[in-house]
Design goal:
The chain is an all-alpha fold. The chain contains nine helices and no strands.
């Protein structure tokens, strides 16, 4: 029972810090913002996350864990590679629909200001995504579910970069129409667009 307030406070800090990074970027998020937003002291913040670098690493760890848990659910629930890719794109679309950007995409834009450990973890996030996509694409091409447009890793990097970029260029506009259009074009190029009903 005694640990509950500590855990709750740490989670609240991470929740607000994640929102701020996803909407403002890491350099637009300060301990003062979090302190004011949660009504807690800066001393309490430093108790949970001694430095901003510690907080950022905790954010990446939590975001990555949740993101790859979603990919596991996609893989466990669907065998068709085209559907897996569409559901992958919807993960990004869901983030954008909440008025946010991919956390690691935002951190990548501030890459040079991150600690070396955070830089490494952001790179690992994108590498794991690329590996997952490359495997899904390779299996889909092998099974005749996808079109081979390039080597699987190249196609995976193109899709990942395209979705991150689609989020970025959609941000100044209301709604998700621009993201949806770009996402559909990326998927269509791989033969992953929804097939007409028979």
């Amino acid at each position: 029972m005694g640990d509950t307030p500590t855990i709750a406070t740490a989670d609240r800090i991470l929740d607000l810090a994640e929102e701020l990074v996803q909407t403002r970027g890491v350099n637009g998020m300060s301990y003062a913002d979090i302190s004011a937003g949660l009504g807690i002291t800066k001393a309490s913040l430093h108790y949970h996350f001694a430095t901003k670098a510690d907080l950022v690493r905790a954010l990446i760890d939590r975001y990555s864990s949740r993101f790859f848990a979603q990919l596991h659910v996609i893989e466990e629930g669907e065998t068709d590679a085209a559907v897996r890719l569409r559901e992958y794109a919807q993960v990004y679309g869901g983030v954008l629909a909440r008025g946010r950007m991919c956390l690691c995409g935002m951190l990548a834009s501030d890459y040079e200001t991150l600690s070396p450990d955070a830089q490494s973890e952001v790179a690992q996030f994108f590498e794991r995504n690329t590996e997952w996509l490359a495997r899904v694409i390779a299996e889909g091409v092998r099974d005749g579910e996808l079109t081979e447009t390039a080597p699987p890793r190249d196609a995976a990097e193109t899709l990942l970069a395209g979705l991150e970029g689609a989020m970025l260029v959609s941000r100044p506009f209301e709604g998700s129409q621009r993201f949806d259009t770009i996402s559909a074009a990326l998927l269509n190029a791989l033969g992953a667009a929804p097939r007409p009903a028979a």
